[in-house]
């Protein structure tokens, strides 16, 4: 059995809004704040507990209203409860498409496409006067084909910027 700090809190396991959506959290991705469901059966979700002290909910709410194609926010749902939760599709680490390609040329093209999308997303955030403040490898994700099948709001090959906690 795992130590308590490595388990999903009981309050999240029994959260009525998550139960209503069929979301059963299995393990932490970031202890104390981010949890995921099992990969099987799909679809796989990630739930983040939003800090009331952060501006993340306000930033996400603002970006959800923005329909620009340059917006690289992960499709998500804010569950306003105590605590406020962010329900998102489980997308892949941005390195995923590079790992599956063998050809150097295709890898290079893929890296350039990913970089272009990252730059587009950051430029768009800045045009809205939003600074990410923690742009790093772990906060850039990409949707794989299976993610698009499981979560129709995502698009395979699209880069998503996550974690707007300041």
Automatic annotation (TrEMBL):
Gene3D superfamilies listed in its UniProt record: Transferase(Phosphotransferase) domain 1 (1.10.510.10)
Keyword check for Nucleotide-binding: no
Residues in Protein kinase domain copies: 1-166
Molecular function in Gene Ontology: ATP binding; protein kinase activity
Transmembrane segments: none
Highest taxon in the source lineage: Eukaryota
UniProt keyword list: Kinase, Transferase
Protein name according to UniProt: Protein kinase domain-containing protein
Originating organism: Ganoderma boninense
């Amino acid at each position: 059995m795992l130590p308590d700090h490595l388990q999903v809190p009981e309050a999240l396991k029994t959260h009525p809004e998550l139960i209503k959506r069929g979301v059963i959290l299995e393990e932490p991705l970031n202890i104390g704040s981010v949890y995921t469901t099992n990969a099987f059966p799909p679809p796989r979700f990630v739930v983040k507990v939003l800090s009331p002290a952060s501006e993340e909910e306000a930033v996400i709410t603002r970006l959800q209203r923005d329909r620009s194609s340059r917006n690289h926010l992960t499709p998500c749902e804010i569950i306003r409860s105590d605590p406020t939760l962010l329900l998102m599709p489980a997308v892949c680490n941005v390195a995923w498409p590079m790992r599956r390609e063998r050809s150097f040329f295709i890898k290079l093209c893929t890296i350039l496409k990913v970089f272009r999308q990252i730059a587009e997303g950051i430029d768009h955030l800045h045009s809205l006067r939003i600074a990410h403040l923690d742009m790093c490898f772990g906060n850039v994700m990409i949707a794989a084909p299976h993610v698009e099948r499981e979560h129709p709001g995502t698009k395979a090959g699209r880069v998503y910027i996550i974690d707007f906690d300041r």
